[in-house]
Amino acid sequence: MKIGLMVDNAIYFTDGSKTTFSCPADLLSYVVGAGKLTVYLTDFSAFNPFMAHIVAHLPRNEHHASLSWDAIISTKGRFFSFEVTIDRDNRTKFYELSNLLRDGYRADTGDSIPHILEILRIYEQADLCRITAGSASMKAYHEGDIRDYQRHFPHLTEEQDRALRPAYLGGYMTAREGHWGECIDIDCNSMYPSILRDEWLPFGTPEHYDGAYQQDDDMPLHVDKIIFRADLKPDGYAFLNDGRMRYGRDAARLTTTDGYITRTLTDIDQKLLMENYDVTVYKHVEGWKFRRSKGFFFGFVSQYGAMKMSNTGDRRQFAKLIMNALVGKMASMPRDGILLPKSDDGRMLDWIPAKKQASNLNTTYLPVPIWVNAYARRRLLHVCRANADRLVYANTDGCALLGWDVPQGCEVDPIELGKWKISAKYERMTILAINRYQGWKPDGTVDICMAGNLFSTPIPYSQYHHGVEVVDDYGTHVML
Fold it and tell me: What pTM, to 2 d.p., does this model score?
């Protein structure tokens, strides 16, 4: 298997070789006898002429029959893969680079191509050149033994997944808008992987019950559907959401339920509910209980955690991404609806909706991400409470505190997994909303967080406030 990077009309391979082509027919001619290739793309739109040429002359086949193609493009138009199979010995997979590397690596200039190839060599050496970071992480975890994985983490039914998914609440976030003086930004080193390693997590098939949970030492973890009303305590943290996905200034969590509501919560979140809200429970509707274990992820996290702590640069980033992507992969929803390319003349592309055949290699197991997320929420809220008089910002695995004093309620270490590090010190910090802030460091540099927009140059302090119109790197006008 050769690994390559396609930029413009050339494919650069990790073994140092290179091939060029002037038209789609040239590329097809190369693919016909090139063996097994995995090629990462940096520009999906530039790949369209080749796709049009292929789909106009070859049939689609999901089982990769000889002289066929297959593709995965999401219903929102996000490109994942396009595969061309000539025969059993000649098959090329085209993947989108950003789905594997995630963090904005680009290969649109000649100088960056060697860097991207060096990163791909790291993945190649580990045999983890996959379609996405999540797929690479899952491969690293089960090491090819998918049957053993599914024995511990079986595929749940659609009904079970649908019933449990509301318990997957998302990270805790809060922001105190304003201009602040000295602040520190702290975050937990690899929070999700450390939880995978250290905490009790569910496995196996859940057992359903009606009413309230009754203590069961064999199945001590449980998630319950409850009807209740709640009002935030004076010193409470509003972690309940209102059931709608909202961002920015409107992303505040519930301070009151305004009557009875129905929520599905883990045992961890039920304790957090009682700690942070005054609660009246009307009814325990039903629940699901699980066996628990601490050992399943220890080797995986230890291996890549050690790699992260002992390396810098690209190898450290590789280990970090492989560890962090596993939880999201286990929570992913099966993608049955896709778009398929269609071309009648081999030049122009059209897109038609289609259904993708379900795979028996599905690795989704939602209960683990549900509990990992709940433990992370508990850890963050504990640190927030311990530093309540200093807290100005929090988001999933970190927070910003007034002053430069050492944070309370957590162990501080710059690299050890599960401990907290001071990632930045700011002389001043302006917070506009969740995922919208800037922090000015003593050395004159500025940390920029502007979710949804790209700003490589900081907005001047005097202009960084609500009501100011700015322009991002792509020319988009943004109202702060």
Answer: 0.91
